[in-house]
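Researcher: Quick one. three chains, 792 residues in total.
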Amino acid sequence: MSNVNIKNVTKHYGALSVFDEINLSVEDNEFVSVLGPSGCGKTTLLRIVAGLEQATSGVVTVAGEETHEPRPDMTLVFQNFRLLPWRTVEDNVAYGLRLRGRNKKESRLEAQPFVKLVGLEGREHKYPYQLSGGMQQRVGLARALAIQPKILLMDEPFGALDAQTRELMQDELLRIWLANRKTVIFVTHSIDEAIVLSDRVIIMQTNPGRIVKDIRIPFERPRNPSEIRNDPRFAKLRGEMWSLLRQEELAPGTIGGVSGE
Amino acid sequence: MTSTISNQSTPKIVPRRKLGDSRNEKFFWWGGLLFIPVVWQIYSFYSDSTLIVGPIDVGIASIGMIQDGTLLRAAGESGFVFVTGMLAGILLGLLIGLLVGRFRTVDVALDPYISAIYATPLVALVPLLVVALGFGFSAKVVIVMIFAFFPVAINTAAGVRGVPVDLEELAKMYCSKELQSWRDIVLPSSLPFIVTGMRLAVGRALIAVIVAEFSTAVTGLGFLILRHSRRFEMAESLVPVIVLMITGFALYTLLKRSEERLASWVTVAPA
Amino acid sequence: MAYQVSNRGLSPQKVLVVRLAAAAFLLGLWYAAAISSGSLFLATPHDVIIRLGQSMANGEFLEYLGPTAYILGIGAGLGVAVGVPLGLLIGRFRWLQWSTEGPINILYTTPIVALIPFMLVIIGFNNQSKILIVFLFTVLPVIINTAVGVRTVDRDLLELTKSFCSTEGPVWRDVLMPASLPAVMTGLRIGLIHALVGAVLADFYAGASGFGYLIILYSNRFDVAGALGPVLVLALTGTAVAALLKNAQTRLSPWERASR
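Model:
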C-alpha cells in the first residue's frame, strides 16, 4: 500500500498563513503533479508530507499510517541535488543503503543497477564537482530509487537544469517510472512538465494558498513526449492550466468580468 | 599561485537564532560565563594554599590598586605603548598591504616572505630587539609595531587582491582613473578585510606589549604582573590580567561587529 | 576564470625571476644594514648560518631543541586531542555552544602570556608548566575553528540525512566529519603556529631549557649571530607547518577548491 492522504492540512508561520485546509488524495502508484506559482505553498506541502516540516493542523496519512516524520518507505528528491561532495557517484547512490546496515562493499553492489538505470554507468568513481548539473540530479534520483521507496516525492527536481537537459530528464523519468511504478508526488512550476509526466495535475494558487483544480491527464502510457506535445489536447490542457495559474497575477476585478472562478 | 595565510581569522562562535531560543540561550550563556568564577571561588575557599586566590580576593586587591593609582598608571603606560605601536604597525601594514594587493609584481615578490614571517613566532625576536634597542619606550613600540604589522599587511593585501573582477571591469568601462578606482571600488570592497587585519593585530599587539614589558620589566601592566607574582602577591598579580582580559575582549568585540556590518553591505563576489 | 583586468597573470618564469630578484634585494638589504649598523645590532646572513652550523655540529643545537620539541609534542598533541572533540561537540549541541561561548571568547582574546607568571607560581618552573602553556595556546583556536566548522555545515545536507531517517552516528560519519574537515585543518594550522609561540614563551619564562632559552642566552651575551640562528630555525618550522597543513587541507578536500 502506498497511498497518500492529505486531510485538512493547514500551515501557518505565526500570523502568516501559507495555506488552509488542503485536501488531497493520491492513490497507489499514481503520478501526481502539484503545479503552482511561487509562494503558493506547493513545496511546503510536499515537505510536510515528507515529514521535514510540521503542519499547523490537519493529518497526513501515508500507507494508512498517520505520518509526522520521514519514513523509510518514502523519500524526497531535492531541487538542489544535495549530493555529498566528498563521496563518489556510487557511494552517493549507496548512501541510503549504507544507512540500512550494508557495509561499503555490499552497498556499492546493490547501488550499481541504479547507477546504470540513470545512465551513469562508467562514472561511478567521479565526484559531484566533476559532474554537470544534469548528471548530479541523476545521482540524486538514483540515490532515491536505490532504497526502493514506495512513495517518491520530488521537489522541482529539474528546476536547476537547462531546458534541453530538463526535457531529457523528463524522458528518463517516464522510462524509469514505467519500469518501476511508485506513487509519485511531483512539485513543479512548469505546465508542460506537469502534463507530460503525470496522471493528474493539481493546480494551486496563492493568496490564499489553495488547490483550485484537480485535472486528469488523458494521455495513455507509455507516453511519447514529442507526440504528446503535438496533440491538440495538450494545447487545450495547457491553455486551461495557464489561465488558472495566471488569474492571481491580475488583482481580482481590475479586468472587467474576469476574476476568481 | 600566490600563497598566503591571509584568512587566519579565527572567528567568534556566533549563535544561530531560532524562535523561542533566546531565553534558553541567555540562561546557558550566563550560566557558562559565571560557572568558572563560581567554581574558582569555591576552590580557592577550600584550598589551604595562600597562593590560590579567588575572584573576590582579586576584586578587593583591584580596589586597592586603583585607589593608590598604581593600576591606572600602569594601564596608561601599557596603553600608550600599545596605541603608538598599533598605529605605526597599522599604517605601515596598510601601505605595504595596498601595494602588495594592487601590484602583482610586488605581490609575487614579497608575499612568500610576509607569509613566512607571519607563521614565525615573532616573540623569538623580542630578546634580541630588547638588547639592540634598549629597555625604553621606543624598543617596546617597535616590538608592538612589528607584531601589528603582519596581520594588517596580509589581510589588507587579501582584501585588495580580492576586489571582484567584475567591478574592476566596470571601472575600466567608465574610463576611471587609478585614484578614482581606489576611492570608488578598491578601498570600500577591501574594508572588511582591513578591519579583520586590525582585529588580528590587536590580539598580537597585546601579546607584544606584555612580552615587551616582561623583558624590560620597568613599567606597565606586564611589569605589575611580574612584580606582584615575584612577591607572591597573587591577587594583585591577577588584577592586571583582568584588565587585559577586559580590554582584549572589548576591542575584539568592537572590531568584530564593525567587520560584520561592513561585510554585510560589501558583497565579495564568488570566484 | 574571468579575464582579469589589473596587473595579474604573470607567467611562471616571470614569477621565478621576480622572486629571485626580491630575495637578492632583501638579502642585500640585510647585508647593508648589518654592516652599517655594526655587529651589535645585526649580524650578516653568513655569520648566522655559520654559527648555526657550528651549533648543530657541536651538539648544542640538539641539546636545546630536544626539550622544546618535547613540550611542543605533548602540549600541542594534548591541545589537538582535547580541542577537536570538544570543538565537535560544541559545534553540534547548541546548549554547549551557548554555555562555552563566553569563557572561550574571553580566553581567546586575552594574551595568555599575562597568565604565565601566575601559572609559574602555582605550578612551578618545570616541564608541566611549559606543557600547560603550549596546551593553552593550541587548544583555543582548535576548539573555535572546529566548532565553527561543524556549525556551518550545509543545512541542506543535514536535512538530507533527516529525510533518509538517519540516526546520529551516521550523520557524523556521512556529513558532519567530512564537511568540517577543512575547518578542522585550519584550526590545526593556526593552533600549531600558536603552539610555537607558546613554546618559545614557555622557554623564556618557565625554566632554563629549550630553544627560547637559547635565544635569551645568546641575546644576553650580545651575540646577535648566535641568537638569530634559532630564530631562523623557528621561522622555517613555522612556515613548513603552515605550508604542509595548507597542502594537506587541499588534498583532503579537493571538492572545496572546486566549489570556490
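The beta strands of chain A are 4-13, 16-26, 31-35, 57-62, 65-66, 74-77, 151-155, 183-188, 200-205, 210-216.
Researcher: Thanks, that's what I needed.
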